[in-house]
Backbone:
């Protein structure tokens, strides 16, 4: 299984008047985790997109377990629990605070899309190769 | 069943470099729909919170069917398909563009919380009364 | 002078833990005012951009006079105090709440840019024509 | 003079359909720089606020020199060019990309406010003491 971690410091901008991180902001946190997961794999999402493959989101699910607060140093763990195949990829996330309290879990299902045709496309071969090592029997 | 509609004009701020509404922004659209649904029921979420009852989100699910774009005039339909009871309430959403194309569906499960105790609390009686008429047999 | 008004309902997402609209969100409010000002002039900013002219921001100034709060129905007044010429245009803004209290004033200086060349370009002629009537002696 | 630096990786969420960081997001970047500047001084903005002193923004100015883009690793330099006194404090900012190109400059004027009274208050003494060393003759 591939797993990566990234730390995110909660910004004041991300709080709401409840004093919590606004529930709509976790999508952006998950995205930071995806970008850093790709970087850790030796892939640049930015370059992939510049080369004509983008990865829009098909589905998102979040569970809000405990609130995150301003200035919390969050750890977002990202998991690719099964090796992706075809055009879709499912990322799972866990968000922890500094006390290792689990605050939030989520998942997103993305699809690789050829930007010229606007159609789904298989996961690029070089991404497969980067992932292979994490799923050998 | 209770149903309400609200229109939201997509802001430039809400787009991303794909030229779509960023996937993380639908949570804020759903929230606008909830605030307006409450107003249509004759309830002010703002007043409810000022009186000590808040409604944090426990779960969110979204499906992204087609992209929304800058300056699209969206209609967000909100549904309370079953009459809420206990401390929880489930809102369902459908987002359409001006051509009545369904772009996004979602749901959020919220919990009423007594802000003093920090504990879940039954849906306030005055909200029950406002909702009753929509669920009579 | 050209002047337009638009109403914006403050979203929960836009508040911060002070209970105020986060100071960084006024830029998005000003942008809503610009889009609606263009529409009132019979111009679509969206179409202008699709035709290859964009209008990035060179400068922004804001003064925060009193806080805006969740669910406030704001009026953003936009002014073009002098007829634009050349490649630049200066928009001025005033933000009021429902009690007509002035909450915020701001200005942005934008530049018309030809998206192919990436260079500043004169304000499109059809915009000049729309504006002329507001500045006749 | 007090100076601090912080690095911010541009999120996809922060871009707009021009492919640039949306102009309204620099306020949040400046805020990250302030929080980290306080931390570098041995001050926690979070604790200060919990103790009853907040620091709302009175004015912001930004100049947009060149665009920031997705995945850029920005450095935000923060300067307190003159030692603050009274209730106000002026922060200046410079935002650079990895090639040390200056992308954006800005400033914010903040006021220390006693949250109980809602009135401006002198900069807390412990902040003065932390800053003294940077402004000795």
Residues:
């Amino acid at each position: 299984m591939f797993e990566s971690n990234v730390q995110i410091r909660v910004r004041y901008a991300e709080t709401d008047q409840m004093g919590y991180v606004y529930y709509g902001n976790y999508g952006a946190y998950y995205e930071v985790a995806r970008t850093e997961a790709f970087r850790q794999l030796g892939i640049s999402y930015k370059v992939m997109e510049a080369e004509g493959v983008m990865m829009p989101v098909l589905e998102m699910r979040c569970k809000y377990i405990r609130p995150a607060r301003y200035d919390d140093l969050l750890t977002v763990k990202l998991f690719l629990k099964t090796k992706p195949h075809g055009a879709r990829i499912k990322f799972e996330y866990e968000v922890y605070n500094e006390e290792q309290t689990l605050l939030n879990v989520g998942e997103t299902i993305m699809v690789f899309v050829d930007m010229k045709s606007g159609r789904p496309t298989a996961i690029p071969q070089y991404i497969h190769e980067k992932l292979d090592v994490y799923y050998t029997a």
User: Anything to note?
Assistant: Chain D touches chain C through 23 residues (CB under 8 Å). The CA atoms of residues 7 and 17 of chain D lie 24 Å apart. Helices of chain D lie at 26-41, 45-50, 125-132. The first strand of chain D starts at residue 2 and ends at 9.
